[in-house]
Amino acid sequence: xxxxxxxxxxxxxxxxxxxxxxxxxxxxxxxxxxxxxxxxxxxxxxxxxxxxxxxxxxxxxxxxxxxxxxxxxxxxxxxxxxxxxxxxxxxxxxxxxxxxxxxxxxxxxxxxxxxxxxxxxxxxxxxxxxxxxxxxx
Length: 137
Hints:
The protein has helices at residues 19-35, 62-74, 88-95, 119-127, and strands spanning 3-10, 40-46, 53-58, 78-85. By secondary structure, the protein is α+β, with helices and mostly antiparallel strands. It has a domain at 3-91: 2-Layer Sandwich (Alpha-Beta Plaits). A four-stranded antiparallel beta sheet has the order 2-3-1-4, with helices on one face. It is elongated and about 55 Å long. 12% of the residues are buried.
């Protein structure tokens, strides 16, 4: 089943005391279990950064994952972001057989189709010649 990263922030008015975070989290999980029984929370963590929590969830599809995020938002307690996630094994399957970037003519890459007179390379050389670094005042 597809995996998703669910990032949440508590709204500024939602928490008065730190102990309330756990209570709000438990209520949210209960509501998700009732309204999205096909969504399973695999792990959940408290974060010390711009987000308050990170949960790894399984959902049958993007729509059901989005539904879970919207349910949390409608409580008025959370703002949410939901990101699809792939295991490395799934990523390897998805990217197997893709053309190498070296074959796409990326400037500066070994095997690149770019040669002398490449406008991007010329612009870089004209902007910052090694002999004349930018001055900071």
